[in-house]
């Protein structure tokens, strides 16, 4: 392809154009390329943005769907064999790639205040913390998210909508993308957020076993359970550190706890959770009355709730009740995905909030920004609706062994490292659950030096807070650099 200068756009439409359900034309195969400049970490950087759609084929070679992607490459790189590539997915299932694309790792982020709340006028700005200085990035939208759509009316939705179905077709799609863009020799990373962590954990093994593609790293942002069992007392106990973080943020703890630094408080609550709370909950209805009363007092102190509420819930406080109860006397609820956000319900009474206050805030700012950015800045013109959340249900969750898949991938590939990132105020995929899953991922403990955890003073999308945006991207840089081997370093286990 000939050189493309700033503001020149090349549109290549390939062979298949299909009528989608809303009677608008969507190309199964297309590319729009634009040139841009930015400054990252004080360094001026030129880069290329490639927006496009790439087909999904069935076993007979028929196009069944088309996935929309955005691919950023830093200019001036003569040899990309040593240049890392990060493949990015968001979650849901059914969520577009917009969140991490336009607020975390990409070269452009949306206009929000320093805590992540919407501001007007809506828009985007340069991201001085983007990882584009150290890695190229592609943001992928699975079927029915973003502009991605099923194109073949005869193809059943069940082909795409399930834990293992999702992994299978996306592994094939990634293979095609890597081949088309000549990135087989590059160090490769997967990053997923929320349900995207289920996706990338499964993909790590599917890429190795079915595509013969080996990774250097997997990054789990606000991870799900990955098929790792944590029901019963574990599920109940693991919520307490999150409760303590949210209560601390809203200043609902007693003065002696409120005065503690959050990190010190959480270390204390985590120790109590593992050493005392969990073993006691395991006794169920046979907890001695005095022990029950003492535990209710302690749990109330750490959670910011009253002892009566704790006892009425048999020491097992649901997250929905907590979101309603913590600020009930003030007439507010707290957010599910980020409990720094508050909402107002129709009634103060009840056991759960009327809506997710944080999600409505995020949609408020992300939706206009992504629609403007893709159409006006990246010049991808279409009348197909950009699905922030697309119709993907029912979703087949059977056979979720993605945590075990990731463990197997790590065991088979000595190069493969894993980074877990979580916000302390996330009540949907709480940070202590993430730690617990990381602890359980490798029961042997022989790969724990390749597993690391980072926590942040924000929620599910910790990068929305300006301070955490800088810190979390820096952690990604450090992880990528540390897990990219030196030239000639063999992938092997060294026996003592």
TrEMBL record:
<protein>
    <submittedName>
        <fullName>Carboxypeptidase</fullName>
    </submittedName>
</protein>
<dbReference type="GO" id="GO:0006508">
    <property type="term" value="P:proteolysis"/>
</dbReference>
<keyword id="KW-0645">Protease</keyword>
<dbReference type="GO" id="GO:0004185">
    <property type="term" value="F:serine-type carboxypeptidase activity"/>
</dbReference>
<keyword id="KW-0378">Hydrolase</keyword>
<dbReference type="InterPro" id="IPR001563">
    <property type="entry name" value="Peptidase_S10"/>
</dbReference>
<keyword id="KW-0121">Carboxypeptidase</keyword>
<keyword id="KW-0325">Glycoprotein</keyword>
<keyword id="KW-0732">Signal</keyword>
<dbReference type="InterPro" id="IPR029058">
    <property type="entry name" value="AB_hydrolase_fold"/>
</dbReference>
<dbReference type="Pfam" id="PF00450">
    <property type="entry name" value="Peptidase_S10"/>
</dbReference>
<feature type="signal peptide">
    <location>
        <begin position="1"/>
        <end position="21"/>
    </location>
</feature>
